[in-house]
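User: My advisor asked me to double-check a structure prediction for methylmalonate-semialdehyde dehydrogenase (CoA acylating) before group meeting. I don't want to rely on an old file, so could you generate it fresh from this sequence?
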Amino acid sequence: MTQQVNHLIGGEYCQGSGDQQIAVTNPANNQPIATLNCATEAEVNQAVASAVEAQKAWREVPVSERARVMLRYQQLLKDHHDELATILAKETGKTFADAKGDVWRGIEVAEQAANIGSMMMGETVENVARGIDTYSYTQPLGVCAGITPFNFPAMIPLWMFPLACACGNGFVLKPSEQDPMTPMRLAELFEEAGAPKGLLNVVHGTKEAVDQILHHPEIKAISFVGSVPVGQYIYKTGTENLKRVQAFAGAKNHMVIMPDADKATVINQLVGSSVGAAGQRCMAISVAVFVGNTKEWIPELKQAMAKVRPGLWDDEEAGYGPLINPQSKARVLDIIASGKEEGANCLLDGSDFTVQGYESGNWVGPTLFSGVTKEMRLYKEEIFGPVLCTMEVDTLSEAIELVNASPFGNGTSIFTNSGAAARKYQHEIEVGQVGINVPIPVPLPFFSFTGWKNSFYGDLHAYGKQAIRFYTETKTITARWPESGIVEGQNLTIALK
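Assistant: Sure, here is a fresh prediction for methylmalonate-semialdehyde dehydrogenase (CoA acylating) from the sequence you gave:
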């Protein structure tokens, strides 16, 4: 018997009255594990109205009290860490270890939300002119919304609503319809932590629900993570409706390997960062750029990748799980086939991989190509699967030129023992997040997640100080209090009413 996934609207959990029903399936065998009814137009409007009403009172709650809610929330998330990871693993197919990492990276942002008091401080200058002071306040926008993808159903929602609500906003979350159970459990724990009913609302649906959010006049800011075409659509439509938008999109992340790097470390890090999470992460390394004689390491890389075995979420020996759905698998297989047709060398082919007893699952084994060129589809598109392309150049400058020519700018890394090479790379590379001997340089939440180029549309990035700016407005006050207004007198008291 499958589980019914509810909406959360105005503090009430409801099945919804929408006619369109979606099955949530187990990616390991594509069998249904839950169903949801897409929200109707009236239900989305009700969710926004609930957030509007709850936010009126919430914005007046002292920032110290809002911080205490976030403190309780991050503790509840820690208390329920393994439970959340189990739900997440079952609906995404991720291994349990990978699912726990997904949850933990979200907890780190919730922890930062508990520090909201210091992050919302304004600025003050005394005597900007004679007897005049100027100071600024940081105030909430109103109601914000988040549209989140399937690949990180805990981490990415937690990038959004804890910080937005800590700033004093209401929030409407539209999670991926492919794995909605994890976000719903996050919402339940948020209310358990003391968040007012109606402050956080969760609605499920497809493009129709997204379009309502994009056009709703009461929604002031929208956060999105997903593909490039949808990211562009979200950004264009949202800004046309005069909303703030931060839209995180696709990627093609390169790792540059210098001849002085440690070979064993490079190979180990390349394997994990390319096929981990089945390659379904926007910070995955999908291109390895071997500089000089490091191309001689490729056969050993092949041997290491061949040892990785996909499997079920509770298989402790599994390197990663299945892709999210049959459509994703078909697309990855199509790109693999295109690489063969266009002349790349397929050194390791995971196209026919299956797991015994789960042959109908969305499995793709580790896949490795050499001889890849910039003109190939294999290189130009984000694959979002366990596929690694290798390319060869003679110098660091050539590697930098190659990476900078990519239309994407999410993440990159360089492996080297040369400080000078690392300095040149980090300075000249046109990518938002750079790792030096770190394969996936996702910053901790004291900083912001800072993709560039076609990997991000907007001005202010996720979490960190930039997120606070995104979810707030600044009010500047210039004040003069003439000394002639000071009341003087013997035993003077002033009663305030």
